[in-house]
Amino acid sequence: MLPGVKNCCKFNYIRVLKITVGNVPLLIHSIKKMKKIQLVDLNGQYEKIKDEIDAAILNVVRSSAFINGPEVAAFQKDLEKYLEVQNVIPCANGTDALQIALMALDVKPGDEVITPSFTYIATAEVIALLHLKPVFADVDPDTFTIKPGEVEKLISANTKAIIPVHLYGLCADMEPILKIAEKNNIAVIEDAAQALGSVYTFSDGTKKKAGTMGTIGCTSFFPSKNLGAFGDGGAIFTNDDSLAKKIRMVSNHGQSEKYIHDIIGVNSRLDSIQAAILRIKLKYLDQYVSARNNAAAYYDKAFINLRGFQIPARFEKSNHGFHQYTLKLNGVNRNDLLKYCEQKGIPANVYYPIPIHLQNGFKNLDQRQGDLSVTEDLMEKVISLPMHTELSEDQLKYICDSIVEFSEKKSTVFV
Ligand SMILES: Cc1ncc(COP(=O)(O)O)c(C=O)c1O
């Protein structure tokens, strides 16, 4: 603070200053406004690379190559290089990516697919949509990702695939999952929608990027994702060339040659404008992941010793992409905290409030409360704080100070 300038009082977003020269008060106040906190600040991110993005969009508009244009092919190559994977097949969104991956595996109605219930609905929805049976495995209470031991217990003669989800940006424990799959001759489809840019380290020191370890990997470029488009987008990855050929066919109307349709497929394309935007943003992905980690480190420091608040676990085998920064509340009333955050202008959210096995859409599976005790317990306790690449120090401080203040009001905190 400059000499003669006194911080008189501090409101949520406004700092009022009194400026004096000698003993004479000159200016009563000046106002410094903190930028409104958003769950995701896409505009702030865009502003920093505006010139590159605007030029890339204009280039596609001028070329009129809107579908399957050169930008799509170039993005595919760039992403293959970044991920160190043999084949990237872009598609329309992350849900399609999962559906196409399953279709490429020649599944038949009744086949079983093991997946967590603690995930976004899309993971399990595509299984049901293809008349396959989702078999839900419980998750690890610390990492929140599918527990290999639970997967193993659920393998049956009908198991066709396992879909681990790299939840919130942390890779599931892939090494034992891949071993279980190999032993039982079943496929692994990674749902890497929340973890593009995360890296898993195997016991021999080999490092692989999320989405490139299993038989097939899938991701989403939904705008809020770590690599987000300006609309929908997705991609499928595989190191198996013959599977890649099949995936390309499935995603393009089952077409092997022009107007020759050997199998039933779907129409799922990444459009050229999105590909052009993603090509630019891919160059910044590692920076984005690191900005998310910096914000997470700030949160950690504030909450590590806060009673009732458990910071996100780190996992020695995977770095964290921090798609979400998710606290686990122990004894803290989540609804009260959500209401308090809303009053304070802090957009907090719950990903996800109801486990998939207890959703009405999955009633036919006849699953009950208590079937997946860790998942059910976590889903009542998790809360995610604003997490994106543009969080400023004053915003982080404001969020942390506010939550600490909430925790100090003991009467409203512990239930
Ligand atoms: C874990 C997970 N899987 C799949 C999807 C589906 O992706 P999309 O919204 O692009 O269809 C999402 C998106 O939110 C996700 O978080």
What does this entry look like structurally?
A 7-stranded mixed sheet has the order 5-13-12-9-8-6-7, with helices on both faces. 37% of the residues lie in helices and 19% in strands. Helix 5 links the parallel strand 6 (112-116) and strand 7. It is globular and about 85 Å long. Helix 2 (50-63) packs antiparallel against helix 9, helix 4 runs parallel beside helix 5 (121-129) and helix 10 (285-303) packs parallel to helix 13. It has helices at residues 42-48, 50-63, 70-83, 94-104, 121-129, 148-154, 174-184, 241-251, 272-282, 285-303, 334-343, 373-381, 393-408, 410-413, and strands spanning 5-10, 14-21, 24-27, 31-33, 87-91, 112-116, 133-137, 159-162, 187-191, 199-201, 207-209, 216-220, 234-238, 255-257, 260-261, 309-310, 325-329, 382-385. It folds into 3 domains: 1-33, no CATH class; 43-282, Aspartate Aminotransferase, domain 2, CATH 3.40.640.10; 285-413, Aspartate Aminotransferase, domain 1, CATH 3.90.1150. The protein has 415 residues and is of the alpha+beta class. Residues 93-95, 119-120, 122-123, 165, 191, 193-194, 220, 222, 232, 234 line the site of pyridoxal-5'-phosphate.
